[in-house]
Automatic annotation (TrEMBL):
The keyword Translocase does not apply. Residues 246-384 form the Glycosyl transferase family domain. Keywords: Transferase. It comes from the Bacteria. GO terms for molecular function: glycosyltransferase activity. It comes from Shimia aestuarii. This is Glycosyltransferase involved in cell wall bisynthesis.
Length: 423
């Protein structure tokens, strides 16, 4: 989760108040956050420490809860582990379909909130408690609708700012479930009609969003703010338990979903197995949550004779363990077919870990000439680069010594200097 590397911006627009959507950030409790989840957490920390008061809004099974700035800070301390989550209350226990983590979070939301209401009472609740001119920020790429945004804008002079991370569900619907494509269409329609400002993470995302939104009508202003890297994740911890390997390994990091193209890596490692003795094959370490529409890949992986010997999948490591593995890798392999930003290779580059990635415009925008770029159709270049990084790069030498390259990642301070200036 965001630590001291997430700094408040120097210059802000200082609205009377900001209202931050907390629904997705709260879902992180009990699991490992995805890239978008971590952006939500970074916003929670930055806005709770910004000069303008930050209220919080969250959707629960019973409707909405509204938190004042003290309540928002209370949520942050729990998500950071500085304060334990409370026990499930009677209401949570009666909602039997809720899991244990959700029962605890919703119980604490009821304890921390200044008001709650059914969905039909949202506009009335917000008008009663928010100052005029408040700015709503939603970083979830979810949890909003036209009716919800209209309820928020019923507060006098309220503004709506939405962070849209990409347009992948519409650009590449074959990588998504049909339901997620329809849901994203609804989000984009609501954004077009109600947003006063759209934030996004790259120029590549701006182009994609403009293309799709313009088909719906006028395009709201769009502001680019490159995502920051949470440097304090990278600190070493004593006595940290991480998997150990007897030879160099390559790491693939991120949710295991169709567009990440992890199947190509298994293809490559199977070709390695056909050509080399096992001791000459670098390990492949796949770290990430299991995503959607990947059943065939997981069946193939589990049936592979390489599984557990040369190819390893980890779904339940915490962030500190993942970044310890990342730091020790001979390189990151990132054959993704589409990205809005590409946080995993940015994090790898920030540590000086070499990166082999697909030649996507957004990765060139963010990473410049740091990675080894190889089209996913060029299997020979991928195999050559992997074996070169695994066996030809001295273990004690970073990429500076090898290539003379050094990467300066975007920072959260720069990100929020932009965001808090325009919202």
């Amino acid at each position: 989760m965001p630590g001291d590397g997430t700094k408040t911006a120097i210059t802000t627009s200082n609205p009377p108040a900001r209202l931050l959507e907390l629904t997705r950030a709260l879902s992180v409790f009990g699991g490992r956050p995805s890239g978008v989840d971590r952006v939500c957490l970074a916003y929670l920390k930055a806005l709770s420490n910004a000069p303008a008061p930050c209220f919080g809004l969250a959707r629960t099974r019973l409707g909405y809860v509204l938190l004042d700035p003290d309540g928002v800070r209370g949520v942050l301390t729990r998500l950071e582990g500085r304060v334990p989550w409370g026990e499930a209350d009677l209401v949570a226990r009666l909602l039997r379909r809720n899991g244990d983590y959700r029962r605890q979070t919703e119980a604490d939301l009821r304890r921390l909130c200044i008001a709650r209401c059914p969905a039909s009472g949202l506009a009335r609740m917000l008008r009663r408690h928010l100052p005029a001119g408040s700015v709503y920020l939603n970083v979830d790429q979810a949890n909003f609708s036209q009716s919800k945004l209209q309820a928020i804008k019923s507060v006098r002079d309220a503004k709506v700012t939405l962070f849209l991370h990409d347009a992948i569900p519409l650009d590449y619907p074959e990588y998504q479930t049909p339901q997620s494509v329809l849901r994203f269409r609804d989000y984009l329609s609501a954004a077009q009609s109600e947003a006063d400002l759209i934030l996004t993470n790259s120029d590549a995302s701006v182009q994609a969003l403009r293309r799709h939104i313009s088909q719906l009508g006028s395009v709201p202003p769009i502001q680019v703010a490159h995502l920051g890297v949470e440097v304090d994740f990278f600190q070493n911890e004593d006595n940290l338990e991480v998997p150990a390997f007897d030879r160099p390994y390559m790491i693939c990091l991120g949710t295991i979903e169709p567009r990440k193209n992890v199947g190509q890596l298994l293809d490559i490692w199977e070709r390695f197995a056909a050509k080399y003795p096992e001791e000459r094959i670098p390990h492949l370490v796949i770290c990430g949550r299991r995503g959607w529409m990947m059943e065939a890949f997981f069946e193939r992986l589990e049936a592979s004779p390489l599984s557990g010997r040369v190819v390893h999948e980890f779904n339940d490591l915490n962030d500190t363990q993942v970044f310890a593995l990342l730091r020790g890798a001979a390189g990151m392999v990132f054959p993704s077919l589409s990205e809005g930003f590409g946080l995993p290779p940015v994090e790898a580059a920030s540590l000086g870990v070499p990166v082999i990635c697909n030649d996507l415009p957004v990765l060139r925008e963010i990473l410049h000439d740091y990675p080894i770029y190889a089209a996913v159709t060029d299997s020979y270049s991928w195999e050559k680069a992997i074996m070169s990084l695994a066996w030809e790069r001295p273990a004690s030498e970073g990429p500076d010594g090898q290539t003379g390259k050094r990467y300066f990642p975007p920072t959260w301070e720069a990100h929020f200097n932009t965001v808090l200036r325009v919202t």
